Amino acid sequence: MKKTLKVLIPILIAAVLLAWIYRDFDFSSFGQSLSSMDWGWMAASLVAGAMSYVIRGIRWRLLLEPMGVRATDALCINSVNVAYMMNIVIPRIGEVSRCAILRRYDGVPFPKSLGTIVTERVIDLVCIALITLLALSLAHGEIDDFVATTGLNVGQYADMLHSSRFYIVIGAVACGCLLLFTLLRRYAFWRKMRAAFADMWRGAMSIAHVRRPVSFVIYTILIWVCYYLHFYLTFYSFGFTSGLGWLAGLVMFVVGSFAVVVPTPNGAGPWHYVIIVAMMMYGVRRDEAALFALVVHSLQTSLVVLMGVASLFLLQNKHAAD
């Protein structure tokens, strides 16, 4: 039941949100838009998306090397592709599947590879923070309008930092963790947990020993450039978005990146909502913005599934050959 709920609840949340967002939408226009849009630009967008997954897999191998792991580029890329597909089924489970695949096919200890993924996530947070700051500096007014339109009250989170209750809760949680640590260290299984955490820490710190740091930085930049192009190039597939410009694409890319944090399949629902709101700010009609969000999200999700299935097939063939 617990496993079933992990799958069904995110799908249910996405279904409710999409039903509300598209309650007045004419779905007959969906098929017509597929035949009339510029597929050349959409293909270029999908290629950029596929390249981001490939580059992420190659960069992951650089993080694994300092621990003595000699995984191939193909294995790392296929693991990343499967992880993205698994995240559609159960949000956030993809990170676990990456480690499981690496352990199965290359014998890499699970905690070590998981530590490298923790490092990746930290780097992703830094990158999205820098991109957000860039968007704020270049389009501060547009983002303020978006926050006002969606009803987000950013100020309440800043006010929370000045509340004594916030620090009381933080202190209570810290004391609880310290007490739990004191109790657990008396038991034998704590040694196994400590060893696993040590492996995870070594994996997380592998970035300090990357043999090709320049390549690592270049790969990181390319990943996020590809992510942006994966979204922005789709503007040229539709007449009503082709003139929006790269800055509008940057604003929507940022708000869309935060929307996919919500645990629904590939951000379905929240992503559609923020993209529609942002496009309407730039003068796109609501029905056209809804059409854009539906078509783009459907095709990009299909790409994730296609690459994941292909990678599973390649991994199965490798296992059979071995």
Word description of this protein:
It comes from Candidatus Avibacteroides avistercoris. Keywords: Cell membrane, Membrane, Transmembrane, Transmembrane helix. Pfam families: LPG_synthase_TM (PF03706). It is found in: Cell membrane. It is a multi-pass membrane protein. With 322 residues, the chain is mainly alpha-helical. Helix content is 78%, strand content 0%. Helix 3 crosses helix 4. The protein is globular.
What's the pLDDT, averaged over the residues?
A: 82
Poorly predicted tracts of residues: none
Query: Terminal Cα separation, in Å?
Result: 36 Å
**Individual helix count:** 14
Topology diagram in text:
Blueprint: H1 2-21, H2 28-36, H3 39-64, H4 73-89, H5 94-106, H6 110-138, H7 140-150, H8 155-160, H9 164-184, H10 189-204, H11 213-232, H12 246-259, H13 270-281, H14 286-321
Protein name: Flippase-like domain-containing protein
Transmembrane segments: 39-58, 122-140, 166-184, 216-238, 244-262, 291-315
Organism: Candidatus Avibacteroides avistercoris
